[in-house]
Structures are given as structure tokens and as C-alpha cells.
Design goal:
2 copies of one chain form a homodimer. The termini of chain A are far apart. The relative contact order of chain A is 0.10. In chain A, helix 1 crosses helix 2 (25-31). Chain A has 2 domains: 1-43, Arc Repressor Mutant, subunit A; 56-172, Tetracycline Repressor, domain 2 (Orthogonal Bundle), CATH 1.10.357.10. Chain A is an all-alpha fold. Chain A is built from 8 helices and no strands. The A-B interface holds A 94-95, 97-98, 122, 124-125, 127-139, 142-145, 149-151, 153-158, 160-162, 166 and B 94-95, 97-98, 122, 124-125, 127-139, 142-145, 149-151, 153-158, 160-162, 166. Chain A binds a DNA duplex through loops.
Chain lengths: 172, 172
DNA sequence: GTCTATACCCGGATAGAC
DNA sequence: GTCTATCCGGGTATAGAC
């Protein structure tokens, strides 16, 4: 494992454990047993580290979705599970600015592909499905649902609208 | 206008103009022509100011939804419009911790009422609708949709699934 | 590529005089 | 209820020796 990877792994650990506020150059250096200024020999600035973390997150999410149980319910379940298991990594993708310019091309599309596939290539429905999943996850992570809420029931209710066939008489 | 209200209005202005990072006790004091320590004569700490702002935000959102054009499309449009017009206020409700303990009872439910009404009292579908709206708004605000995306089409596609009747043969 | 030392700026919050 | 002065902590980042 190169030092660069070591830094990123430590950053991931730090983010997971203490959230975005806990990811500082000082703490990061402390975590890998080095002094803060040394980090700048490996990354030009903090934004570069965040960008690298976003790339990792997108890849992880892609893989989780790609290996989901086939079908709408399976995909949704995989989406939610990954987000709940990596709440701060998920937040890094949605709550922080996405450093598109520092991202290798294709990673973003790769994460979206499973959703697009599920809607049969309908881009509008894919985006709506993304919105539904993203919204429910964010509300859950933010603790906006009251204690004891049946969140799975909300998912089922929302996914009902995405069952085929949508337009009557149309069949694939 | 009391000094307390003056502080909150200035805080709202600051938040709208420069985002959460721009809302600091120093800037807030500067905005109303006073020194920072004076603010603590009106609010115990910064969290109290944020809580008051959240209450204002919830009330504003409630009113916007209550005055929406009747029907699913009208409600959705009002939800989106309010969020786009008050992006940082919206973010204060979803991206920051909701200070429920400092919130007057009822304000949170009041904001949710129009959605629940739209789904005919079905709480699960109301939450799903909330998730859809919240997710699409967050994705739009975060700039996650590519340039030129037809966001309204995504909304239409998502709302399709919420058209009645949902369960076949059932009618109100 | 690591270190020490440090610059620089910012944050929230308090003490005590008036 | 306002002020001045200040505490204390924290952040990103750089210079220059080794």
C-alpha cells in the first residue's frame, strides 16, 4: 500500500467515525503517525483529498448497485443499504460540492447506470427514481422521520409508482 | 421591530446571501451595526439563533404549500419553487440538525399536512411523496443533474406514480 | 519526504467596565 | 444592553532545515 493510499484510507476512516468536521489535515496526519505538513507532499491541498474520496465513494456505490438483487426492490434496497452503511461517504457525494473536474470520466455515469437500466432506459423515470431514493435516504439519515416510522413501508409505497407497465396497454 | 427580530432578519439575509458558512456571530453583529458579544444578550448561543431560523423556515414553507394550486402538480411545483427560492433556508432544515427541542410543537406537522392531505391520508405514500420531492430538490440544488437536464420532466415522471387510483378498483 | 516552527485567519464565547 | 479586551481553540497552508 502506497503512502497515498494510506492517507486516503485513513481519511475514509476518519470521515466514517467523526463526520466531515472530523476530517482535518491535522487529525489525518495524526491518524497515520505523521505531521500535518507532510501531507502536502502527497496532495496539493485538502480539496484533492476530498475529490479522491468522492471517487472512491462513487466506485463503492456503483459496485453495490451492480451487485444488487435483480429487480426494482432489490436495487432500492441496495441503494439504501449502502447509504446507511456509509452515511458520511454518501454525504460527501450529495452535501459537498462534487469535484467533477478532478474526477475520472465515466465514474459518475457508472453509478447511475443501474437505475437507468431499471427504468428501461427512460431517463426521466430514472432521475425520478434517483430522486425518490436519494430523498428517502437523506430524510432517514437526517433523522427527519419520527421515532418508530415504518420507513420500509414508505419505500414500498414510493416504488409502487415505478412498477411496470406505466403507460396502459404498453408492454415489454 | 424588536432587536431580537432584527437579529433574526439579518441572520436570514446573511444565510441567503452567503450560505451557512457566512452566518457567523461576528458577521451577524456587523450586519446590524453592533459588536458580537452584544448578541449574547438576546440569544444564549448560536444554536438558539439557528433554531429560531428553522422555525421561520418551517412556517414559510408551510404557508407556501398551503397556498399552492390544488392538486398534486400544484403542490409539487410549490414545494420546488419555495426550495429554489430559499435554498439555504431549505438546507437549514435538511442538512443541519433539526433543533426539535427548541421548536414550538406543531410547526413540523403543519408543514407536512398538505402532503398528507394530497395522498388522502395515506401516511406511507405521503412520506414517499416527501422523499421524491426532497430528493429531486436536493439533487437540483447540489448541481447533480447535468447541464440542460429537463428537470420538470423528471418531476412529471415521478409524480405519475402518485396519481390516483393506486390500487385497482379502489375509488374515493 | 519528513521534520519544526510558524504565519495567518477564523470561529464561539466570556469578563467586567460603563 | 452595549462596549473593549481577551481567551481559547481550531483550521489550511508555507518556509526552510535535514
Amino acid at each position: 500500500m502506497t503512502r497515498t493510499d494510506e492517507i486516503l484510507s485513513a481519511a475514509e476512516r476518519l470521515l466514517a467515525a467523526h463526520g466531515p468536521q472530523g476530517l482535518t489535515m491535522r487529525q489525518l496526519a495524526l491518524e497515520i503517525g505523521v505531521k500535518a505538513p507532510s501531507l502536502y507532499k502527497h496532495f496539493p491541498d485538502k480539496a484533492a483529498i476530498e475529490a479522491a474520496l468522492q471517487e472512491r465513494a462513487l466506485r463503492g456505490q456503483s459496485e453495490a448497485l451492480a451487485h444488487a438483487t435483480p429487480g426494482l426492490a432489490g436495487l432500492a434496497s441496495a441503494y439504501r443499504a449502502w447509504a446507511l452503511r456509509n452515511p458520511h461517504l454518501y454525504g460527501l457525494l450529495s452535501r459537498q460540492h462534487l469535484h467533477r473536474d478532478r474526477l475520472p470520466p465515466g465514474v459518475e455515469d457508472a453509478a447511475a447506470a443501474p437505475l437507468l437500466r431499471e427504468t428501461g432506459g427512460d431517463i426521466d423515470r430514472a432521475r425520478a427514481l434517483w430522486g425518490l431514493a436519494h430523498g428517502l435516504v437523506e430524510l432517514e439519515l437526517a433523522g427527519r422521520f419520527p421515532e418508530g416510522t415504518d420507513i420500509e413501508a414508505a419505500w414500498r409505497a414510493g416504488l409502487e409508482g415505478f412498477q411496470r407497465p406505466r403507460r396502459e396497454g404498453f408492454r415489454t
